[in-house]
Amino acid sequence: xxxxxxxxxxxxxxxxxxxxxxxxxxxxxxxxxxxxxxxxxxxxxxxxxxxxxxxxxxxxxxxxxxxxxxxxxxxxxxxxxxxxxxxxxxxxxxxxxxxxxxxxxxxxxxxxxxxxxxxxxxxxxxxxxxxxxxxxxxxxxxxxxxxxxxxxxxxxxxxxxxxxxxxxxxxxxxxxxxxxxxxxxxxxxxxxxxxxxxxxxxxxxxxxxxxxxxxxxxxxxxxxxxxxxxxxxxxxxxxxxxxxxxxxxxxxxxxxxxxxxxxxxxxxxxxxxxxxxxxxxxxxxxxxxxxxxxxxxxxxxxxxxxxxxxxxxxxxxxxxxxxxxxxxxxxxxxxxxxxxxxxxxxxxxxxxxxxxxxxxxxxxxxxxxxxxxxxxxxxxxxxxxxxxxxxxxxx
Length: 395
Known about the structure:
Layout: E1 5-8, H1 12-23, E2 28-32, E3 45-50, H2 56-74, E4 77-81, H3 84-92, H4 94-100, E5 101-102, H5 109-116, H6 121-127, E6 135-137, H7 141-145, E7 153-157, H8 160-167, E8 172-174, H9 177-189, E9 194-198, E10 207-214, E11 220-232, E12 238-244, H10 248-260, E13 265-273, E14 280-286, E15 297-298, E16 301-302, H11 304-311, E17 327-329, H12 331-343, H13 349-357, E18 360-362, H14 371-394
Parallel strand pairs: 1-2, 1-4, 2-3, 4-5, 17-18
Antiparallel strand pairs: 6-9, 7-8, 7-9, 10-11, 10-13, 11-12, 12-17, 13-14, 15-16
């Protein structure tokens, strides 16, 4: 019997996973915590659940009800979280979820916490023989004023997805002490904790990533390495263009880090090559799919069925590292990024369109599955109208 798959989150990565499994006959259920999850419109999602309660307890209860219903009807299920909010749901309800489903996370919660906790990540990296940019905790205003890092430096939140949703940016670049204090106070008032980190020169052009699936036996079953070409917001944001570029050093460093804590499941390791010494330095680890995971879940190279088979208790044959060069493109978000860069005269037309002339994997568009494309266009148009109305009211 084919075990159902429940995908928590249906934005680009969750959509890619749903399409891959759906094409293979796996019954896919989608659970979305946001209306922006356009993947709910995919023809490969058989059951759709929009769970919008703002209270964590009520939202969790509804999502668990979906899992229980699926498990009662079809037996144990496979559950894959797409974003941090979905990983948080699994971790908050770990016993209940694991009683119903297999999840792409290690049985040992400590391995997940070790990689997600940005306060202790430098220690984990050191044990794996990896460097990190210098990091300084900022527990109070005195620590902000006394921050020893050279200017400019970065202020980064412990919870990057929630911070980005609240402030429309992932980090704060600090040029002056007054800016650091203002940002720290605003973040603290909104319930966020910030820390300071050394800004690697030119880091926005040197961010390298490993997307990997580590099987239950500890084997690396699939991997994709590449770099950000463009990101939104510009400078420090999620990829809008990602290009695969196999780099053995990045692959080895990322795999070594994950193995050092006994990690299992999907992971995204982000590093930067420091031009000052040429060393790779660890920026962060996500215990989930990256937004550009679709580049590793396409007809060219597909990790999804291996992960699904592994979670179902099979022993799939590992794939070699993905070696083809191509671009993953998220057109809806990249248009906004290109417009911002063009206004700042940091991007010309040839550079803007070049990735779209290459061999590529679109984040949303698929000739045989047009629903998500229509949904994402509707979503962005609605947001644009809402912003325009808000500006007119402000005037």
